[in-house]
Design goal:
The chain has about 80 residues and is α+β, with helices and mostly antiparallel strands. It has helices at about 10-25, 40-45, 70-75, and strands at about 1-5, 30-35, 55, 60-65. The chain has one domain (about 1-65): Glutaredoxin, CATH 3.40.30.10.
Length: about 80
């Protein structure tokens, strides 16, 4: 599964979420494109209070504190 990962520099929650995404890759086929919301005014306004955000097909799959379990559940639900 390929997702968009909305983040911004200096965001500790974003760093932790990306580490969880790297861990989940050991068990599930996950790839992502990181998008810095500070470089996109629309996404900044949309996600400034939600980051990090994992999105697929314009649907937010998870945001905020993202754990390994949150990501694994996405695969189990067939997203």
């Amino acid at each position: 599964m390929h997702v968009l990962f909305y983040t911004k520099p200096g965001c500790p929650l974003c760093d932790e979420a990306e580490q969880m995404m790297q861990l989940i890759q050991e068990d599930y086929p996950l790839t992502w494109t990181a998008v810095n919301i500070e470089e996109d005014d629309v996404k900044h306004e949309q996600y400034v209070f939600m980051i990090p955000v994992v999105e697929k097909d314009d649907e937010v799959l998870c945001s905020g504190v993202i754990s390994y379990v949150d990501l694994a559940l996405l695969f189990k639900s067939g997203v």
